[in-house]
Amino acid sequence: MNQLPRGTERANAPRQADGRKLRRRCGTLGACILGLLIVVLAPARVLAHEPIFGVGPRVIWKDGLGLQIQLDRQEEELPRQEGKDDREEAWVINYEVLYGLTANQAITLAIPHVLDRRTATAQNGGIGDLLLRYKGRFDRRDVPGGVYHASVLAGVELPTGARDGPLPTGSGTYDVMGGLAAGYEGRLVFGAGRYKRNGTSDAGVDIGNGLIADAAVGFRPVRTAYRRPDTVVMAELNYQSLGRAQREGIVVPNTGRNVLYLSAGVWLTYRNHAFKPGIQLPVHTDDRGGASRPDWRFVVAYEVHTGSLFGR
Amino acid sequence: MTGSRHHRMIGWATTALVLGVLLGAPAPARADIEEIVLRVDGLACPFCAYGLEKKLGRVSGVDQVDVQMDAGRVILTPSRGTVVSVDTVERAVSDAGFSLRSTELTATGRLGERGGALVLWLDGPSGAAIELVGGEVPDDEFARRVGDASVRVSGRLQTIRQEAGRIVFVLTVDRYERVQPA
User: Which of A6, A23, A284, B27 has the most CB atoms around it within 10 Å of its CB?
Assistant: First the structure.
């Protein structure tokens, strides 16, 4: 899952909570949850696929090779400083290579390239922190037209991104991640939880650790044959909690936040090709009194699966 | 009629006779596994099933792979004259990340007997054979009537074993028929 390059310390700026805006978003959230429940009760085998903004339990086949290129556009509302509003916008291309070690284990290498990250006063770009992730499916039960499965996730982000300037493309730390993903393709549901242990930057800041939880449902309006184009509509709830940063045991102001997102996307596939656009909106943000607040996010990805380079 | 014209007519007649014999003769009996039907669990989406097609397509002797999502099955068409390794097929399904529930064969060969069991010879008494056990096994009267003619048998594969260097499939028969000559 992609996020804005981390590591930038924000100035201290208290923020007022907007009660009416929160209630409106909760009402929208309630309607969305009801909609998801309705989709859950849909007939069998119309629900499938992996989440677009989360990580599902599925792995590619043994010796299979997957390639994905994803364009990611994110926007954040920065803490108000000296009465000025500022926003941060980022365009990132993620290149991913996926390989099936066995029928139930796969590794992924993700290379983010920050095309442009800018605020009103600063701009940067370049390679971000590489991600190496392992997924091991430890439980699988195949049934006619569907599968129950669960996987363990483990990953490490390498500090390959740049640290120069006010908008670095990398965190400067080795960050590790572990988690679980489970789901039932064919009828629903995907659920995943990940915990990310962020390291200490070279400025001596211990960046807060992150907890990510996702729930997703996919709905296939028309059941198609194998060699026909296939469409699945995805709806997701994504939760991210980022702990406060600390420097020498003292909490850094304007860091850490909890965000609940509502996401929607579409899987358009034909045999081994997949096109996946999606949009993510924050429906509830707790910025803990001063951190940046995420705004909308848009991704579009193309993924292709092919045989092994080794000809197996 | 001159001599050269007479010889040409004999030549054309002989050619016509030989062609007539060849084209009119009954086709030699075919011995073949015509189709393998795999019942596969876990076929949740077409994008996910691509790996299954990829793996099965690489099995030696498999000519075509037809994935049928709704029916939960995959139909393999072997190349003529080849005996596909069912063990390899089962491993391909497993490597693709799916579960094989059952395997069905449709094969053509000659009925015979071995060790008191009715068999379908795929490649002569020294080659691969299918033991026909259970289900709709052809009776003695049918075997006597067809003689050496080809018979097509379909059924569920129970097991496979090796016997003196020969592959033996054990099949529960669903249906059988005599193959009419072309």
Answer: A6
